[in-house]
Amino acid sequence: MKKFSIVVAGGGSTFTPGIVLMLLENLDKFPIRQIKFYDNDAQRQEVIAKACDIIIKEKAPDINFIYTTDPETAFSDIDFVMAHIRVGKYAMREKDEKIPLRHGVLGQETCGPGGIAYGMRSIGGVIELVDFMEKYSPNAWMLNYSNPAAIVAEATRRLRPNSKILNICDMPIGIELRMAEMLGLKSRKEMVVRYFGLNHFGWWTDIRDKQGNDLMPALREKVAKVGYNVEIEGENTEASWNDTFTKAKDVFAVDPTTMPNTYLKYYLFPDYVVKHSNPNHTRANEVMEGREKFVFGECRAIAEKGTAKDSKLHVDDHASYIVDLARAIAYNTKERMLLIVENDGAISNFDPTAMVEIPCIVGSNGPEKIVQGKIPQFQKGLMEQQVSVEKLTVEAWIEGSYQKLWQAITLSRTVPSASVAKAILDDLIEANKDFWPVLK
Ligand code: NAD
Ligand code: G6P
Ligand code: MN
């Protein structure tokens, strides 16, 4: 059986060790001969890499492992790029979240002005990875989950329309795990779903078991009461995420014929979100004090001890969707998965050039879209506004246009007026001057 060579771009990510452990658990399904890490921050990456080197030597010594900041070394002789970079790192995420809050607007990693700011940083970084891949391994595929995925996907559609890049998000997977738990199913893969939307902006319209039985009625009863807030074995969900899972019941109430993505809370209840935010301590602070501290601490401990034997780092089971996706391409499995793809008629009454999140059948030649038909007025209206935010952001980046970025922020449902949008934009420009193109 062929063994694959992969490069993890954003080797220094907090998610890298969990993903490596997940890959090592799945070697029977997806054999690997080589893992490379690539990052543009050598020091950050080295901490994670030294620990992963030990983990790989202990669990799968046959795998060749290297880490580098040199693109040619990283991207030569590879089959897959697994990309999760965060341009500007947590220091800039913190600003994305705190600057809008200073103006009374919610601050979020991928939604509202914070997500737009992050998008303006990510586009160049992700396009650079695509170009490295095409230069050094033209037959490779990029599996991209770098955020903000909606804006990044639109940018790759515009700028690299023929590149082999698949954009995917784990939020629907995380929610489906909770649905499966509520329904008493052993696996979320027992559900066959219909879904439509934009990334972090979508709805399930149909959920059935493999026999075709409708699971929506039972789910509705539960979600109306607790949202998606259920105990998941082995998962210690943080308070802020539990709040998001609970709030899903209010999002659900706005249209009980569908099941909402949790991220809709930011668009439908922005006042609630602002009221429950601490402008001096946002999610970026929680992540730096929590996940980042834990992962980097554990990695340093592994390097010091020279063994990962009693490490508390755990397999990122969530991330096994990455193996499902790589296997679909490598083995033509025709797995049905939600991907972010160009609409092109799949949602028949929506912009054909929009990057939408819908079920696709994935095989060796990429995704085949499953038509979701016409969508209702309520969702269509919301999506038309949001997709315009995303398209204007990408146009602003390409053209260096202040005007278009102002329009993008003004159009976001999270922002009350053009004057507030302008004030936020001017602060964001100042904060992002090392990352954004110059806007005129
Ligand atoms: P992190 O800051 O810990 O890691 C990101 C790494 O990317 C850092 O080591 C940084 O140095 C590196 N990097 C930044 N710019 C780069 C560039 N231009 N080239 C190469 N490397 C670069 O962040 P994290 O919290 O671990 O998240 C990583 C990414 O994964 C983020 O974009 C996050 O939003 C995304 N994510 C996406 C999903 C999804 O559902 N799509 C799920 C989880 C995380
Ligand atoms: C979900 C989303 C990701 C997002 C992450 C944020 O998994 O799908 O797109 O990056 O949540 O998690 P964090 O713990 O960093 O706030
Ligand atoms: Mn996501």
From TrEMBL:
CDD domains found in the cross-reference section: GH4_GlvA_pagL_like (cd05298)
Any Gene Ontology biological process: carbohydrate metabolic process
What InterPro entries does the database record attribute to this sequence? GlycHydrolase_4_CS, Glyco_hydro_4, Glyco_hydro_4_C, Lactate_DH/Glyco_Ohase_4_C, NAD(P)-bd_dom_sf
- Details of cofactor binding: Binds 1 NAD(+) per subunit.
Q: Where is the signal peptide?
A: none
Catalytic site positions: D170 (proton donor), Y263 (proton acceptor)
Q: State the Gene Ontology terms under molecular function.
A: hydrolase activity, hydrolyzing O-glycosyl compounds; metal ion binding; oxidoreductase activity, acting on the CH-OH group of donors, NAD or NADP as acceptor
User: Iron: is it a keyword of this entry?
Assistant: yes
Q: Where is the Glycosyl hydrolase family 4 C-terminal domain?
A: 195-415
Task: Name the residues that bind substrate.
Answer: R93, N147, R283
Q: Which UniProt keywords apply?
A: Cobalt, Glycosidase, Hydrolase, Iron, Manganese, Membrane, Metal-binding, NAD, Nickel, Transmembrane, Transmembrane helix
Matching entries from PROSITE patterns are given as: GLYCOSYL_HYDROL_F4 (PS01324)
Superkingdom: Bacteria
Recorded family membership: Belongs to the glycosyl hydrolase 4 family.
> Cross-referenced PANTHER family, in alphabetical order?
6-PHOSPHO-BETA-GLUCOSIDASE-RELATED (PTHR32092), MALTOSE-6'-PHOSPHATE GLUCOSIDASE (PTHR32092:SF14)
Q: Tell me what this protein is called.
A: Maltose-6'-phosphate glucosidase MalH
Origin organism is Leptotrichia wadei
Its gene name is malH
